Amino acid sequence: MPTTLQDFDKKQAIRLEANFIVGIDEAGRGPLAGPVVACACFIPPAMASNFTEVNDSKKLSEKKREMLFQKLVGSVPYGIGFASAAEIDRLNILQATFLAMRRAAYKFSNLPDSVALIDGPYPAAGLTMRQTPVVDGDAKSLAIAAASIIAKVTRDHYMNILDRLYPGYGFAGHKGYGTAKHMQALRALGPCREHRRSFAPVGKLLNPSFLP
C-alpha cells in the first residue's frame, strides 16, 4: 500500500519526536519580477482526511489550486511571508527565500514540540524552530503540499494586483516569469520597481556588461 502524504507526516512526527509538523514551502524563486512568497502550514491530524486532494501545487490545475486554497485558508493555521524584489536584489534569491520562510514561520514560533519540514535540500537559515529539509517535500508531505498551494495562489493573487498597478507587462498572465511576452514588454517599457535587477535578463537591459 503506497504511503500517503498524511502517513509521511505521521512518520516524521514519530521519528522527530514532535507533536506538531509544520510544512514550509515557497513560490516565486524563478521569476524576473515580484516577490518570493513562503507559507508555513499546520494540518491538524484530525483534519488531514479532509484534504486528500492536496498535492504538490505544480501538479494541480489553476482551478483545483484555487479551490484547495480557499478550503485550506478557511480551516487550518498558516502563516505567509514575503520577500520583495528589492530584498531579493540585496540578499540574493536563496537568502531572500529563507527570509520569507522565517516570516511565514513566525506564526508558529511559540508552538511547543514542533518541527518544520522544509521543502528542498537546505534548512532555512535563521529559523528559530526545529527543522529538517525534505527533498521533493511537496510531493511527499501533506503539510508541505498544503503550504505549496497557499504560497503559489497567494503569489498569483499578488501578481494579479501588480498587473493593475503596472499595466503593459502582462503580470497576470505570466506571473513574472521570463516568457517571450514578458521580455518583449521589458524591452519596450524597461523594468518597473517590481523587477529583480540582480537577475540577468533584467540586469542586462540596464547594463549590457551586467555580470550576475
Automatic annotation (TrEMBL):
Keywords: Cytoplasm, Endonuclease, Hydrolase, Manganese, Metal-binding, Nuclease. Its EC number is 3.1.26.4. Residues 19-211 form the RNase H type-2 domain. Manganese or magnesium. Binds 1 divalent metal ion per monomer in the absence of substrate. May bind a second metal ion after substrate binding. GO terms for biological process: DNA replication, removal of RNA primer; mismatch repair. Belongs to the RNase HII family. Endonuclease that specifically degrades the RNA of RNA-DNA hybrids. This is Ribonuclease HII. It comes from Candidatus Avelusimicrobium gallicola.
